[in-house]
Amino acid sequence: MVTTAQLYTAQVVHKRLFPKANAFHYGIYYLVLPLPAAPVPGRFASFHREDVGPRDGSDPTPWVRNILAEYGLDHKTQHITLVTMPRVLGYVFNPVSFYFCMDESHALRAVLCEVHNTFGEQHNYLCANPDHAPITADQWLEAEKVFHVSPFLNRHGNYKFRFDFTADTLGIWIDYYDADQQKQLVTSLTGTLAPLTSQTLQRAFWRHPLVAMKAISLIHWQALKLLLRGIRFITKPVQLAQRTTATRNLNKI
Questions:
Q1: Domain assignment present for 225
Q2: What are phi and psi for residue 111, nearest 5 degrees?
Q3: Cis amide leading into 34 (omega within 30)
Q4: Domain ranges, residue 22
Q5: Is cis: bond before 195, omega within 30 of 0?
Q6: Based on the structure, what is the number of domains in the chain?
Q7: Is residue 252 part of a domain?
Q8: % of the chain exceeding 90 in pLDDT
Q9: What is the pLDDT of residue 234?
Q10: pTM of the prediction?
């Protein structure tokens, strides 16, 4: 269990399997913050609470707990750890932030994935077992895809999620299956944790400079490559009213 702020240094891997194969990977770093979390100051990289959750500057803990309570998971959650990209030189784009929800024995009970697209929209995927049992490191959890992210993937099909969170490592795997249940996209985020200090944060900044800008630039660069390869462009649909989607058979109370 993480009890103090950590720096997560990781590799992102994206693999598109069809209709035309495409893959890329890059280094990245995240902040790992036990909630409630104070702002993290920094000249180059920092954390601001208005970048996550309700995005109003308040601590995101009540926001997360309200979502958990809708599914009966709040009383199972003793500790919440936020994994999020920093704001870099005043700019932030966070494709996904993760809230790892642990019980009093430090077993993982739920993961809330806060997803943003490049159109300024936000949606949450709540991953948990239907019986609220602990999530194991080898377990895949499935949720319906209802949020438009890529203009080259339809807004239907399913995601499968897997999480492995230890004291010093973190692995996250998210695969996308189309409406015919064919695996089309494979993504992973894997790396190690170290104490977060002003020195380690500054070193991460220089090792991966402009990482927030890099993320958004790579999204558009990969989109251009797919477009030039003849992959059909899908116009963004109107966002659905539903703002949180739970994994299969996890029902509201």
A1: yes
A2: -135, 120
A3: no
A4: 6-231+240-246
A5: no
A6: 1
A7: no
A8: 74
A9: 73
A10: 0.92
Q: Which of 34, 48, 47, 106 is nearest to 77 (CA)?
A: 106
**Tens digits of per-residue pLDDT, 119-136?**
899 999 999 999 999 999
Look-up of token digits 């944790």: 193
Is 211 domain-assigned? yes
In a domain, 253, yes or no: no
Residue 246 pLDDT exceeds 60: yes
The total of other beta-carbon atoms located within 10 Å of residue 213's CB is 14
Contact 124, 70 (CB under 8 A): no
DSSP class of 85: P
Q: Read off the amino acid at residue 72.
A: G
Dihedral angle of Cα 48, 54, 59, 61, to the nearest 10 degrees = -130
Q: What is the pLDDT of residues 162-214, one digit of tens each?
A: 999 998 999 999 999 999 999 999 999 999 999 999 999 999 999 987 776 55
Work out the angle at residue 40's Cα, subtended by the Cα atoms of residues 82 and 59, and round it to the nearest 5 degrees: 50
Higher pLDDT, 192 or 23: 192
- CA–CA gap between residue 104 and residue 108 (Å, rounded): 10
Instruction: Choose the weakest-confidence range: 18-27, 46-55, 61-70, 205-214.
Output: 205-214
Tokens in use for 169?
Answer: 């490592």
